[in-house]
């Protein structure tokens, strides 16, 4: 089962993503800021990290740069509803951000994209009634 770390300072967004990916059979952890995410990486080795861009403290691009150093094999997705993403973060390393997804997202498209990014090898776990 693939593991996903979701990082977003908006509780509703983080909860929606957690429900979506758990329903699809992924193991999911949530962090509400960059520092909390880095702490989770000590014990949780994700296959994929989805981070919001605009968060208080460390922004998503900065977080994903640190994730690249700590968990280099993890796919790193930046999620944002802001078109000015790169102009507002000129130091963001293109290498640190594997992929960009715009808010609002379409659930089916997001799940499909994540499965593709993970190589399609992470099928959902069997559901229990």
UniProtKB/TrEMBL annotation:
InterPro entries named among the record's database cross-references: Bact_response_regulator (IPR050595), CheY-like_superfamily (IPR011006), Sig_transdc_resp-reg_receiver (IPR001789)
Presence of the UniProt keyword Phosphoprotein in the record: yes
Domain Response regulatory: 3-118
Residue positions where 4-aspartylphosphate is found in the record: 52
Gene3D superfamilies named among the record's database cross-references: 3.40.50.2300
GO terms (BP aspect): phosphorelay signal transduction system
UniProt-listed SUPFAM superfamilies: CheY-like
Record's signal peptide: none
Key words of the record: Phosphoprotein
Record protein name field: Response regulator
Organism lineage: Bacteria, Pseudomonadati, Myxococcota, Myxococcia, Myxococcales
């Amino acid at each position: 089962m693939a593991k996903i770390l979701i990082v977003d300072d908006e509780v509703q967004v983080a909860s929606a993503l957690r429900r979506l990916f758990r329903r699809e059979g992924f193991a999911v952890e949530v962090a509400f800021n960059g520092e909390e995410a880095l702490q989770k990486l000590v014990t949780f080795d994700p296959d994929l990290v989805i981070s919001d861009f605009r968060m208080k403290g460390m922004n998503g691009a900065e977080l994903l740069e640190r994730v690249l150093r700590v968990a280099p094999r993890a796919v790193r997705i930046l999620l944002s509803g802001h078109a000015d993403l790169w102009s507002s973060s000129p130091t963001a390393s293109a290498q640190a951000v594997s992929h960009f997804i715009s808010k609002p997202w379409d659930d089916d498209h997001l799940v499909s994209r994540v499965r593709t990014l993970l190589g399609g090898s992470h099928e959902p776990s069997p559901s229990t009634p």
